[in-house]
Amino acid sequence: MQTTDIWYQLYLRGRKITLTLFIVGLMTLPSFGQGMFGLTSGSGSDNRTLSYGFFLAAQTSTYQIKYSDAFLNPTTTSMGNVQSINPQFSPGFSLGFIGILRFHDQVQLLFTPKVGFYEYKTEVRYFGSEDPSLINVPDENTQINTKTSQVLTSEATMVELPLLFKYRSQRFNNTRMYFIGGASYNFRTKAQDEADVEDLVTTGQDVSLEMGMGFEIYFKYFKFAPEIRFSHGLNNAYRRENTIPEIADAISSIKRKSITLYLNFQ
Question: Which residues form the Outer membrane protein beta-barrel domain (predicted)?
Answer without folding.
Answer: 47-237
